[in-house]
Input
Amino acid sequence: QKEVEQNSGPLSVPEGAIASLNCTYSDRVSQSFFWYRQYSGKSPELIMSIYSNGDKEDGRFTAQLNKASQYVSLLIRDSQPSDSATYLCAVIGGGYNKLIFGAGTRLAVHP
Amino acid sequence: GAGVSQSPRYKVAKRGQDVALRCDPISGHVSLFWYQQALGQGPEFLTYFQNEAQLDKSGLPSDRFFAERPEGSVSTLKIQRTQQEDSAVYLCASSLLVGATNTGELFFGEGSRLTVL
Output
């Protein structure tokens, strides 16, 4: 079992809809969780972080964390074609605070 | 420059050749990571430097992979006797403090795409 699991997608949503991206992790002691966005051919960029159970909102993005279920999600409201990218879930794990990434979910927002 | 710079951006090697990939992190960043990203996959950790010290090389897939950061700034990832399975994008990332810290913010370069024929 990989440490961070994501559905690879593609997840296709119409413009203006809510996109819901999910992630599970295996290490119960993980405390810090992150969502990175990666456009095709580009490097990952951090878009959200969450550390406590519950929701964290930033503009059109909401991250949700449930440590009991070892589950993290990212909601994107009012999805735009420019949101089309791969979304990588990551946790801090192992020594030296390295980031461990999931395989990523490809999101396609169609007009 | 302001960001993490990697070179070459693209490298084609024949199987068995040695390659060297360079990373120039953001000035003053203590931590430097190398990741390998295969097509359709997430980045996989290779190795970690804190200044010039290589503190974690647990992700290096074989002894053909070697990384160094001799003066605590520029880093080189060397792959000897390249194999087809080495084809991937190699990402370098740096952070100001030790590790990814709890902010999780790593600054990534654009990557070096290696294709082994």
Notes: DSSP finds no helices and eleven strands in chain A. Chain A touches chain B at residues 4, 6, 8, 31-34, 42-46, 49, 51, 88, 90, 92, 94-104 (CB under 8 Å).
